[in-house]
From TrEMBL:
Parts of the chain that traverse the membrane: 37-61, 67-88, 139-165, 171-188, 257-279
Protein name (database record): ABC transporter ATP-binding protein
Localization in the cell: Cell membrane
Provenance organism: Ursidibacter maritimus
UniProt keyword annotation of Transport present: yes
Cellular component, GO annotation: plasma membrane
Length: 583
């Protein structure tokens, strides 16, 4: 259970934050929400007026003294209260809340675009998805329901208490006293509830993450015989969710009982005082009858408010999650007026750490344009991180990366990405047609251009053999394609994009001989006249590279051509010898 305790579950935001979140979650719809808020308050006041006017009505009825006028006044107040409520509810009925959710999602999308990939990958799978879907719905969708609940629960008793001042101030004080007793009780209950809800939200988040991992990794788990173990882990989280729910229900029992009893007891309190004042002759029966009806109504409203207030906590938790995303550091971007005239790449005194773990140390390297450059070294030495620095996967803590003599932070994201194509071992394919999956590298490309890129990438034939050819929809991230076929689709994207710099995470490393030959043929075409950075696992594929950089523990320890490095007889020569001997 300790897994779910974190800064968010420990900290309870003060109650005024709820109002802050409620108003701000509506974004540009704020004026409409404020208008709804105004009409909700007006509706509650008019309702209070109508209830309190029951007393002069009953008195006039008893004395047969022009009661029709009071009756018309009560009916008008009630009709106006209903009209105001209908206007207030337009925030939901006219779809403004949906628009607020749409805008919030757009804002989050924009934010995520500006956050470094390194930061984004620190989120658990499913976490961002759940924030974008569930938290947005809860934050933007609940706002009006919660506001009206808060208003009816507080404004009706307060306005009634105010109007009663003109009739009998003692009852006003009595109602205010009941409200004042309930508020600290509610705050006490909130504390117990809030922690439980935060823990539950965390546990449910874990459950979503586990289920996504379980489903996505099912084939690997089956192959490695680990299904049972993973299922046990999954089951443990399911049990945790059930346990937290049980504990939450038990913990909430006492505060719930006390609060609902207090609202019911208030009715008895009014009766006790009212009857004693009636007996002493300082109150008449009509006022007492009106107050009993009134208190029954107020007790209902307060009970409803208390029961529904768990929604407030869910709302606040969602807002806090959105706040966490909006507070993520952004990559500072600029926009260049002129793009570079050459594609020489330079890393200058670059240091990079993930949290406090230093992964790249004082990297200095120069890559002339149109050359083939390979990065080799033991697993975990920092090859991928080094190459990703060029893509602004994250910004280095120290040092710079330059393309054509320009610091890459000077480019906008679009400008930088227009210069670089990547072909990694993991190819991401979207659930869309084959042609659209390739065209995404250059959205303006014609069908002919896409087909020509596919021919060069050696994938035209197998696409043609698909049931709907280029229009075939890829299912489940392209699970119906082999690894080699996916690689060739990625190469087709890179050919179509035609960027001057190409990053390859040795795409043939995990392929069988037949697929490797096809991919290699496609690659041979792609690498011509480009600046290439390749992460190499098999040294035989990079013997012709212009420069080979050998990394060890985050530093470049050797660099040169294949033959020079062999002659140096250091790390590279040792790796070469291992691989040649099949070790
Ligand atoms: N997102 C991340 N957060 C924290 N640490 C990371 C992250 N990505 C990589 N690392 C760590 O940084 C170090 C360098 O990783 P990197 O992937 O750059 O190595 P590599 O040389 O490419 O390894 P391999 O050849 O196995 O792919 C490793 O110790 C790795 O565990």
């Amino acid at each position: 259970m300790q897994d779910y305790f974190n800064e968010q579950t420990q900290k309870i935001k003060p109650i005024y934050y709820i109002y802050y979140y409620l108003i701000n979650s509506s974004g540009s719809q704020k004026p409409k929400l404020l208008r709804s808020l105004f009409f909700s308050v007006l509706s509650s006041i008019l309702f209070g007026v109508a209830i309190v006017s029951m007393y002069p009505f009953l008195m006039a009825l008893e004395l047969n003294d022009n009661y029709q006028l009071t009756l018309i006044f009560i009916i008008c107040s009630l009709v106006m209260a209903i009209v105001c409520r209908v206007i207030a509810e337009q925030y939901d009925t006219k779809g403004y809340s949906h628009y607020a959710a749409f805008e919030l999602r757009k804002l989050l999308g924009e934010k995520l675009r500006k956050v470094s990939l390194c930061t984004l990958t620190s989120f658990r799978s499913g976490e961002l998805n759940s924030i974008l879907v569930q938290s947005v719905n809860e934050a933007a969708g609940f706002a009006f329901t919660l506001i009206s609940m808060l208003i009816y629960g507080s404004v009706i008793p307060i306005s009634v208490s105010f109007f009663l001042l003109f009739i009998d101030y003692r009852f006003s004080i009595l109602i205010l006293f009941i409200l004042i007793v309930i508020i600290p009780l509610y705050l006490w209950r909130r504390k117990a509830f809030r922690r439980g809800f935060s823990l539950l939200a965390e546990a449910q988040q874990h459950l979503k993450g586990e289920s996504i991992e379980f489903i996505q990794g099912l084939d690997i788990l089956k192959l490695t015989g680990q299904t049972q173990n993973q299922q046990q882990k999954f089951q443990r989280v399911i049990n945790d969710v059930a346990t937290i729910q049980n504990i939450g229900t038990k913990k909430g029992e006492r505060p719930n009982f006390i609060i609902t009893s207090t609202t019911q007891l208030s009715l008895i309190l009014i009766l006790i005082f009212g009857v004693s004042w009636l007996v002493s002759g300082s109150v008449d029966w009509a006022l007492l009858a009106m107050l009993v009806i009134l208190m029954a109504r107020i007790a209902d409203i307060l009970n409803f408010f208390v029961q529904m207030s768990s929604l407030l906590e869910i709302f606040v938790i969602s807002c806090e999650k959105l706040e966490k995303i909006m507070a993520l550091p952004e990559l500072v971007e600029n926009q260049l007026d002129k793009m570079p005239t050459n594609y020489n790449i330079e890393y200058k005194n670059l240091h990079f750490s993930y949290s406090d773990k230093e992964v790249l140390r004082n990297i200095n390297l120069y890559i002339p344009e149109n050359t083939l450059n390979a990065f080799v070294g033991e697993s975990g030495c920092g090859k991928t991180t080094l190459v990703r620095m060029l893509l602004r996967y994250a910004d280095p803590q120290k040092g710079t990366v330059l393309i054509g003599g320009i610091d890459i932070r000077e480019f906008s994201q679009e400008q930088l990405m227009s210069l670089i194509s990547v072909v990694f071992q993991d190819v991401y394919l979207f659930q869309d047609s084959v042609i659209n999956n390739i065209r995404m590298a250059k959205p303006s490309a014609t069908d002919e251009e896409v087909i020509s890129a596919c021919k060069q990438a050696q994938c035209h034939q197998f696409i043609q053999d698909l049931p709907m050819g280029y229009q075939t929809i890829l299912n489940d991230m392209g699970s119906n394609f082999s690894g080699g076929e996916k690689q060739r689709l990625a190469i087709a994207r890179a050919i179509l994009k035609n960027a001057p710099i190409l990053i390859l995470d040795e795409p043939t490393a995990s392929l069988d001989t037949k697929n490797e030959l096809a991919v290699q043929k496609a690659l041979d075409l792609l690498v011509k006249n480009r600046t290439i950075l390749v992460i190499a696992h098999r040294l035989s594929t990079i013997v012709s590279a212009n420069q080979i950089f050998v990394l060890s523990n985050g530093s470049i320890v050797e660099k040169g051509e294949h033959q020079t490095l062999l002659a140096d007889n250091r790390n590279y020569a040792q790796y070469w010898s291992y691989q040649q001997n099949g070790k």
